[in-house]
Amino acid sequence: MMQSCPLCASPETAPYHRDARRDYLACRECALVFVPSHQRLAPADEKAVYDRHQNSPDDAGYRRFLSRLFAPLVARLGPGARGLDFGAGPGPTLSVMFEEAGHPMAIYDPFYAPDPGVLEHRYDFITATEVVEHLYAPGRELERLAGRLAPGGWLGLMTKRVDTPEAFAGWHYILDPTHVCFFSEATFSWLARRLDMHVLFPASDVVLLQRR
Question: Residue 5 falls within a domain, yes or no?
Fold first, then answer.
């Protein structure tokens, strides 16, 4: 059974790939590739996967990984710009890196820092590293985050991007059972138009969206 796209809500979706565990549908409107809702993990099983993550600000390798987003974004921020790290996970690190650079940070995570109050404030920038591929309702969540940005503010996203159906079939990224949404450059370009934002692609897995 076809399902509407969780990003743009279009009913125009079609089979894209199937493996031994899951099906993958593609949206003809925004090009998102996604897993049908009935094949997602239950919340407790999803959290159990995240609990195995061992990220830490003390891990130099993890900091280097996050620098792919940190470096191009921090270079575009004014002094003292205030930020939110959305989906910070069990070992918040990107927020520490920005605070070290002089930018006050709030954090939010539905499992580890579930304070909805921080989502009511306005920010100069919002980051979500390795987050959007986990979202069950990416359209609603990304629109909400964009709405929390001050004029000229930045939304910085980090996620691996879909290339071709052939590459997708052998892609390690789809092996993680918590990954349910897969974005391409075309998807992010569609999103920028939808949110009326400028879009930049500073790295193969980094996207910067700026509020006009």
Answer: no
What six digits make up the tokens of 11? Answer: 């009913």
Strand pairing report for 83-86 and 105-108: parallel
Structural domain span for residue 151: 13-211
Q: Which residues contact 65 (CB under 8 A, 6 or more apart)?
A: none
CB atoms within 10 A of CB 204: 10
In a domain, 162, yes or no: yes
The one-letter code for the residue type at 197 is: M
- Cα 53 from Cα 48, distance rounded (Å): 9
Q: What's 101's domain CATH number? A: 3.40.50.150
- The CA dihedral of 134, 91, 201, 165, to the nearest 10 degrees, is -40
Q: Could you tell me if residue 87 is left (phi over 0), alpha (psi between -120 and 50 degrees) or otherwise beta? A: left
The pTM for the full model equals 0.96
> Facing residues of 106 across strands?
84
Asked if residue 1 is part of any domain, the answer here is: no
pLDDT per residue rounded down to tens, the chain (212 residues): 679 999 999 999 999 999 999 999 999 999 999 999 999 999 999 999 999 988 889 999 999 999 999 999 999 999 999 999 999 999 999 999 999 999 999 999 999 999 999 999 999 999 999 999 999 999 999 999 999 999 999 999 999 999 999 999 999 999 999 999 999 999 999 999 999 999 999 999 999 999 99
Kindly state whether residue 3 falls inside one of the protein's structural domains: no
How many domains in the chain? Answer: 1
